[in-house]
Design a protein that fits this description.
2 domains; about 0% strand; mainly alpha; about 100 residues; 4 helices
Length: about 100
């Protein structure tokens, strides 16, 4: 007797739909889980060093993301007003340099 035989039909349908998912989907899910685990371990180690080091590392990552958004203009829609303001100070990949 299957372990799914005692479950409601909706739960059976849910588990059946999981088997249909392609392997590529499961590899992406697994990769995200591994990356989140590694990030949590790294952040815990940085916090143990010093909170100042943690804040500096966090600001560096945020700065790199902001510069990438300004350069490529691929920011989320809710960040567009902030990126528009900051973009006036940085070069963009869509504009040619002035000579």
């Amino acid at each position: 007797m299957s372990c799914l035989s005692h479950m409601p039909e909706s739960v059976k349908n849910f588990f059946d739909s999981l088997w249909i998912m392609p392997a590529e989907f499961w590899l992406k899910i697994f990769a995200v889980i591994i990356v989140l685990f590694i990030l949590s371990v790294v952040f815990k180690r940085i916090i143990q060093l010093s909170q100042v080091v943690f804040v500096v590392a966090l600001l560096a990552v945020a700065g790199i993301i902001l510069v990438k958004w300004v350069r490529d203009r691929n920011e989320p829609p809710f960040m567009t007003p902030i990126v528009n303001f900051v973009a006036s100070f940085f070069p963009s990949s869509t504009t040619a340099p002035q000579r």
